[in-house]
Amino acid sequence: MSTPFYVSPQQAMADRAEYARKGIARGRSLVVLQYADGIVFVGENPSRALHKFSEIYDRIGFAAAGKYNEYENLRIGGVRYADLRGYTYDRDDVTARGLANVYAQTLGTIFSSAAEKPYEVELVVAEVGETPAGDQIYRLPHDGSIVDEHGSVAVGGNAEQISSYLDQRHQDGMSLAEALKLAVQSLSRDTNGSEREIPAERLEVAVLDRTRPQKRKFKRIVGRQLAALLERDGAETAAEAEAQAPDEKE
Amino acid sequence: MDFLSEHQPELLPGNRQLPPVQGVVEAPHGTTIVSVTFPGGVVLAGDRRATMGNVIAQRDIEKVFPADEYSAVGIAGTAGLAVEMVKLFQLELEHFEKVEGAQLSLEGKANRLSTMIRSNLGMAMQGLAVVPLFAGYDVDRGKGRIFSYDVTGGRSEEHGYAATGSGSVFARGAMKKLFRDDLTEDQATTLVVQALYDAADDDSATGGPDVARRIYPIVTVITEDGFRRLTEEESSGIARAILERRLAQPDGPRAELL
User: Fold this and answer.
1) Which pTM was predicted?
2) Which residues catalyse the reaction (chain B) (predicted)?
3) Binary contact (B91, A83; C-beta < 8 A)
4) Which end of chain A offers a freer environment for a tag, N or C, measured as fewer CB atoms within 10 Å?
5) According to the model, what pLDDT value does residue A124 have?
6) Domains in chain A, CATH or no CATH each
């Protein structure tokens, strides 16, 4: 009869975290930024059908990096949670904080249960408020912790580098075109510091726009609209980019 | 709905047991809903009265609701149950759209509503029927379509115009004489208010435009651009124009004899 090896809990957790982190790092990164009229989600996604971002409820959006089947599972769970809440009580009673808590519980339970493999996902739950001050962005790493973020957040493979890049450059009250441009810039920087071009058709972009007259504020930006936004900003901010170029070299 | 029936069945309308009752349960009933198609869309409208027996239970009830961006449902029958059914229907369409990433087809929506009405059959047998009218813009075919239902959930597509509720007989008669294939949006909205006026004229449970209290029919239009409810100003404009003409001609516009 064989005796099982003793593995210290610290080691077991460290191994699981390592496993999850590696899985997440294989996927492409995505960023979530606040801008003047709401929150924009930007990511590189070659697929048109398998979305990284989606609508959860009126004011709540969802973004995920990592393994598709796992986060899709969590997304549908979130939609169910939100719809059930909204139906039982009122549409206003569905909040990003409540949803983030449910996700944190789920991820935490899966992470620490020995019977299951940890989920290789990192989520962002964002809620757009009536004013920029009311916006909420929560980042949920694989282990079930919640991080309350402001301004900008990046998740996925290259997240640390991207978020430090964003932290330095993100300002409150940016226009959508400016925020989008910043997001694309940050995503197009590789780990080794070199830059590459991401064509518009490989970008997935969605917004939670507080100025939308409908109750449901989530909207995907695709096709011509996206191209127009990217272009507009190219023309308008070309001069600014020139001016900023010297700073970037420092 | 499937998830709800597993998870929290008590929230579903069809799953409640009713105590055995003698006779008919008294509850507010909504009355007349009318709908007309026109090239490019469909109009759905309803009066504002809810009755309980011979009493007017509510003067300004709203009986026409958006189901989603491209469809709307108008309800006749037991108001409380109908409003709950609409709420669940809206939830289901939205839920499907979010989970699947695509909207249900208009047929799919109509079928779903049919199932929901059928699940209410037990209540309907006790006098608490809900009979909606479903109208929407079919994005695939590029035209407005109307579906009517019976208490058992039987669904039938109506061409041109349709009405449901206690005043529907009179409204349908009016629409039959006024309807044409080439209505514009403005003419279609006028037509439905005319029909509601005629229904209110002959059916005591249907409310006409109430100028004193500023209560006018709810008129909604669904086109390629989505669902739009006419503002109070617009619907009062239509109602007042009709009222003005009816002062001279109480029975409304006359159709040709031959």
Assistant:
1) 0.85
2) 31
3) yes
4) N
5) 95
6) 24-249 (3.60.20.10)
